[in-house]
Structure formats: structure tokens, C-alpha cells
Amino acid sequence: MKRIVLACSTFLLLTSGPARADAAPDAPKLFQSQCARCHGDNRLGAMGPALLPENLHRLRKNKAAGVIANGLPATQMPAFGKKLTDTQITTLVDYIYSPPEHPPVWGEKEIRASHIVYPAAEQASPSDKPVYDADPLNLFLVVEAGDHHVTVLDGDRLEPIKRFKSRFALHGGPKFSSTGRYVYFASRDGWITKYDMYRLEVIAEIRAGINTRNAAVSADDRYVMVGNYLPHSLVLLDAKDLSLIKIIDVKDDFGHSSRVSAVYTAPPRQSFVVALKDLKEVWEISYADDPEPVYNGLMHDYQLKEGLAETGRFPVRRIRLNDYLDDFFFDPSYEHLIGAARNARNGQVVNLLVGRKIADIDLSGMPHLGSGITWKYADTRVLATPNLKDGVVTIIDMHNWKTIKKINTDGPGFFLRSHENTPYAWVDVFVGPHRDEVHVIDKKTLEIVKTLKPVPGKTSGHVEFTRDGKKALLSIWEKDGAIIVYDASTLKEIKRLPMSKPVGKYNVYNKITRSEGTSH
Ligand code: DHE
């Protein structure tokens, strides 16, 4: 563990002189001379991000070549176009998109060595008051992917109160502690950052994986669980200072390992629930001091014996399925999880009490269940989800798991958001050609009542509401982007705040009260 007293701001020069262009380029040598100082000798990342196929899968090779040639504005990645030939750039691209000769290791030693506890950790006290006069529960965190920063936004005055540099490429929703005092961010490169929302300071950081999916915080505020693609592991951290508690290898009975698709907390069950990319199993890991009563009250003895692969602290209960379950979504009682099935024809409902699939649902394509939401509709509750492949929002009755309606949209979309106090649900469609549009759906009629085009030609997506549900904040996902604030009932624009590719935004109150209109 490192204790950092002063923030270190070293500006590293990437190059060691022009590379020779005549001989056939030697990729490893070229990498060592041009890239290793920032991206690590072993490509696992250092000041710059990791450069391994798993970490790069979202970037097309020709784009990567462009980044090497032209650099990345607002980062320390310089342009190599004048120093390297096209052949050398292609060689580097091929190299970083190839698996390394020796599979990278990220185990206990590496995780512990990455641990940083900042002075703020010791200074923070339970009696602290916020260092600002805004409502701490109506703050928003806005993740700005353009230059890898986070803005803390006052949700009443709609003004930023702080902006700080984040780790490279944060992804997924930051997870708040139960009072909203602390928040935990996860980056795609595996960095977990704990931030104090009262003092507005970073408390601690640790790199839990090489390529991380997401993180969850236990409802009792004691643990953080991190799910990784690389290596195939779950990493349990102490939420106080992010120190490592346990690494759980993700393997089945035969030793087949799996990437983790997603991990979430199920508060009433005092457990983490984990979806696996490569095994037909869902895992439930209890964080209760004594998990027996939780499981015993809910399962037959047979399932208890069958289901618990490990005993002792943090036992892994393994629910076997007959299809893979990717991303998923809980019902409000946390008894069911609703997941996409790999067959791309239907979704599946798994009952956590009995530990098996209880229904198939009509969800084809690629529903983005992590952004599903629910609301009361007539005498039932519905689940609604957008779809990453089809221009459709599917509405499902949660009492019988039947589809009530498919709302056709102008394209596939990522995020659907609402709030208890608003009659509308907002869905973006930016995966398709109408990336500048957002539909507003009436939750009573299940009809699109308005299509907004906030900035023609510019990508718009991801909405989050103020704690009272009266205002909706929408992102314009461009380098010179913005947050646009709307009156959630008149749908009129109130304000624009310039931001650098603001991806997601997260309201403290809506998250800690587990609002039905947002993700948790
Ligand atoms: Fe996400 C959340 C998976 C690509 C922006 N995304 C999540 C979550 C999962 C997920 C499992 C929930 C994690 C959580 O909050 O704990 N995302 C995936 C994918 O499988 C996918 C399609 C491919 C991948 O590369 O991983 C994917 N996601 C993207 C993007 O391309 C987006 C649009 C831009 C980006 O930053 O990468 C993106 N994902 C987001 C955001 C959230 C998210 C903003 C949090 C939404 C929220 O309101 O909670």
C-alpha cells in the first residue's frame, strides 16, 4: 500500500527520438521505445490506459491508428504522425491488438501494490459537514468522458461546485454509500476510486483488475465487490479504505473460468449477485456475517447443500441455468432477476428464492437491461427496457412476465430513465441514425408524446432527474457537449451547462433511495 502525501504531477515525455523507418519494424521494440513509459512495459497501463485486446475492444483499429498519428486532445497522448511512418503505426496497432505472449497476471501482489490511501482518508470524520452549502442529497455527479473528469453539480442551483480528474475511462454508474457520503467509481482499466462527497476529496484507490466490468457496494456499506473480464475474477474490497479482502476465481466445477458480466447488490438479501459471461450460472455471494439464516429461510435443505459451493465467509451460491445470462435487472423486491439470454430470442426470469429460472420473456435482440426501469401501470407494475439492436422499448407486465407493448422508436438506444414524480419516461436512440433524438414516453398511455432534438446533428443520451423529479438533465455527448436541463413536465429547456462529452449523470438521492426510474 502506498501513502501519498503530495499529488504527483509528472509530465512524461513519450518519445525517445524519431524511430527508424527503413528496416521492418520490430513491434515489441517499437512499443518499448515509444509507448511503454506511459502504457507500461507489459501493456497493462501506467499513466496511460492498458493496451491489450480486451481493453481495446471498443476502439476500431483504424481509429487506434488515428489516435497514434494525431494524439488525443485534452490528454497527454501526443501525436506520433511526424515521428513514425505509416508502417510503424500499423505495426504498433497490430501489436497492441494481439494477446501478449504471456497472459497478464493481476493477483494479490499486484492488487495490493496498487493500493493508494490519500491523506483525506485520515482527515475524514463522521461528524464532518459538507464543505458547500448545497443540498448534499441533490448533488449530481457527471462523468465527462471527453477529458476524463467528474463534475459535482448542485442540483438546485444547477451549477458545478467542483470538477476533478478521474481515472481513464470510467464506466457504469458510480455507487454511493447508503447515506450518500461516499461514492465509488470503477474504470474500465480496473481502478476503483473512493470519493468523499462531503469534503470533495479522493480517499483511496486500488486497481482491482486489468479489464473491469463494474463494481457494487454492499447495503451495509462494508464491502465493495468488483467484477472483472481480465482476469476472470471477483475482487472483494474493504469499503473503508479499499484494501483487498478476498479474490474469488470465477470457475465452475470443472475448472472452466468465466468473465464477469456484471455484479450488483441485493440489499434485502445482503448479497452480491453476479452474472457470468461464459458460464451458465448466476452467483449469489452473501456478505451477511451469518449467511445461514438468510439462505435457510428461503431455500430447501437440498438446494442449500447443492447451491453453496463454498462455506465460511462470503459463500458462493451457484444457480445453474440452461442459458447464459448477461446483464440483468432486479425487480423491486429483489426476489427476481430479469436477464437477457445469449440465444438473442428471449430473456429469462430467475427467482432467487428457489434458485432457478421460472419464466422466459419475449425480449429479443439485445435489451440493455441494466437501464431497465419499472413503474406502476393500471393495476400492475411494468418493466421497460430499451434495446441495443432494435428500435424498440419493450414493456413487460411483472405479474405474469408477458409483453404488454413494444413501442417502436427511431432507433436502438441505450438508456431509459424516469422518476416516481414524473409522468414520462425518456429514452435515447443514439445507437441508430437518429442519434440526436430523444423520445418522451407517457407512462400511462405507453405512447411517445414528444420527440426532442436538442442539438440537431449532435448525439444526445442518458437522462437523470433531480431528487424531486421536476427537472430532467440530458447529455449532449460531444467533446464540446453540454448538460441540458429540462422542465420535466412542460419539456421546455431551462438551462445549458457546457461539458466535455458528459456520458452519465447520477443524482445522490435517486440512487440511495433506489428510485424506480433509474439504475442502482
Ligand atoms: Fe455501459 C452502465 C455494460 C457500452 C455507458 N454498462 C453499464 C452497466 C453495464 C454496462 C453492465 C451497469 C454497470 C453499473 O452501473 O454498475 N456497456 C455495457 C456493455 O456491455 C456495452 C454494450 C459494451 C462494453 O463496451 O462494455 C457497454 N456503456 C457502453 C458505452 O459504449 C457507453 C455508452 C459509453 C461508455 O462510457 O462506455 C456506456 N454504461 C454506460 C453508462 C452506464 C453504463 C453511462 C451507467 C448508466 C446509469 O445511469 O447507471
UniProtKB/TrEMBL annotation:
GO terms for molecular function: electron transfer activity; heme binding; metal ion binding. The keyword Hydrolase does not apply. CDD domains: 8prop_heme-binding_NirN. Keywords: Heme, Iron, Metal-binding, Signal. Pfam families: Cytochrom_D1, Cytochrome_CBB3. Residues 22-100 form the Cytochrome c domain. The keyword tRNA processing does not apply. Residues 1-21 form the signal peptide. This is Mono/diheme cytochrome c family protein. The lineage of its organism: Bacteria, Pseudomonadati, Pseudomonadota, Gammaproteobacteria, Chromatiales.
